[in-house]
Amino acid sequence: MDFYSGLQYVLFVAVVTAVVEPLGGYMDRVFSRQRTVLDCLCLPVERLVYRITAVDPDVEMTGREYATCFLLFGLAGTVLLYAILRAQQFLPWFFPQYHTTPLTPDLALNTAISFSTTTTWQAYAGESTMSYFSQMVGLCAQNFLAGAAGLALGIAFIRGLSRQLSSTLGNFWVDLTRALLWILLPGALLGALLLVWQGVPMNLRPYSVATTVEGTQQVIPQGPVAALEIIKNLGTNGGGFFNANGAHPYENPTPLTNFLEMLAIVLLPAALTNTFGRMVSERRQGWLLYYVMVVLFGCGLFSVYHFEQRGPQLGRVNFQNSIVRSGGNMEGKEVRFGIGGSTLTAVVTSNTATGSYNSVHDSYTSLGGMVLLVNMLLGELVFGGLGTGLYSMVMAAAIAVFLAGLMVGRTPEYLGKKIGPAENKMILLYALAAPLVVLPLTAIAVGTRVGLSGLTVNIGPHGFTGILFAYTSCFANNGQSFASLNANTLFYNLTTALAMMVGRFGLAIPALALADLFGRQRSTPSSSGTLPTHSSSFGVLLTTCLITMVALSYLPALVLGPLLERLLFGR
């Protein structure tokens, strides 16, 4: 690993680690309604929102009521966004000479579900499809609302684990409002100013038309890019204003913006581990989850960088009787980021629910692309989505506790709560959801003509990997793709939408149900027979359990895809 890439990675992890405790403490104060520095600005707005919506902030909800509100909120967002997309040609800032891609009913439905589930899977080119109104009022607004809903869900999950003999998990509308006013809006405002400072456009001007030196006309799209760019990262949404996402110089002009945008993706999910430790009154539990995340994150960084740096050279150039090499696999990567910056972005986005890549993953080496795929197959838990990453890691910890309990012949416990038959059912539903959705949909796609018709560039094991990557990304609410699959067809628009909905709501309901079951229990004091879930040995058990579950579920599929490609082509 070269010095500058290593320095960048160490600095990134150091900044995230330094911010985890203060930001985690801030979110704890926000959702426990303690005093914060933004109260003077946010409290009046919060009271106004409650007055308009007739919400009583002192009334709490049961787990079922909380889940119902979460589902209805997601449904309402989907319907509203679908209506905006279908009517965008009649709304302001629509340029028919440039917005030429038709928004068919199935594409509009897929996009609406995508943004309301924080997946932001984009089977279209933003600059030729979406008007400024659709981008700002539709997509950008959903990035805020869906991100806040995910954060609210994560907080409710933590409350259930922390409470005793309680039948409530909080108030969804209060958590949603506070996530927006105290966290996402201030963070997005600050982040957008930093991006504008670095040259990211923020305007409503018509597209510019320039004449090149060859005398041809070139259309240069503009628009409110900074507003969408920061919240897609901060809210762990993904996607992009432009088709090239983070590789576009308007979205991500410098290595500094790339570093800042990656921090925006990771900071809140990482800090939630500290919020978790504070709310359950055992900070060591939160730090253990964070350290497991960092270890897996570091392994991903090292692996992808290693495979890309040792990838095929793109050529040699004779210069003053010496040979200058391109330095590894630079295909599909921006020169201004290089392998180091591209690897950081690829690993961050594949580990979280933010698929805003700055390089084409279809051009990665077979093993480098496999690492990105495995990151998503782990279950969106290495930092993960806003709120969802935390409860994904805790659900994995519950599985590890259950397995440990089986080995010693004791009823498994986590945070002083028994994991009985009812709890095990919720954990089992959560663990089986991904393979029961991703693998059958992949099999249908590779076994039917309509599925294979999307492989316009690559076939064989690489094409299989592209299809598996697409469904895994949609289920993980990630949104990135190999970029060699034509997903704008009726078949893929409907099947990927199904994967998105199950990945969002099919995982949220068992998680909330488990939190509700935990909250109704009385905590039992630890004894000599209690498995310490804050120790390094449990961290090793948790990490081993995660890797084993992925291998048992997906190893045959990985063999048919990236591993077979490596054996056949040696890259």
Overview of this structure, please?
- The chain has 571 residues and is mainly α.
- The chain has one domain.
- Helix content is 63%, strand content 4%.
- The protein contains 18 helices and 6 strands.
- It has helices at 3-31, 39-53, 63-86, 105-116, 126-129, 132-162, 172-197, 225-234, 255-279, 283-309, 338-351, 366-377, 388-408, 421-447, 449-452, 460-475, 490-519, 536-569; strands at residues 208-211, 217-220, 316-319, 322-325, 413-414, 417-418.
- Strands 1-2 form a two-stranded antiparallel ribbon. It has a two-stranded antiparallel sheet with strand order 3-4.
- A hairpin with a 2-residue loop joins strand 5 and strand 6.
- Helix 13 crosses helix 18 (536-569).
- The radius of gyration is 23 Å and the shape is globular.
- The two termini are 19 Å apart.
- The model is unreliable at 314-326 (pLDDT under 50).
Short description:
With 571 residues, the chain is mainly α. The protein contains 18 helices and six strands. A hairpin with a 2-residue loop joins strand 3 (316-319) and strand 4.
Notable features of this structure?
two-stranded antiparallel sheet, mainly alpha, single chain
What fraction strand? under 5%
Overall pLDDT score? 89
**Helix content, binned percent:** 55-70%
**Structural class of the secondary elements?**
mainly alpha
Provide the number of structural domains.
1
Order of helices and strands: HHHHHHHEEHHHEEHHHEEHHHHH
C-alpha end-to-end distance: 19 Å
* Main β sheet profile: 2 strands, antiparallel
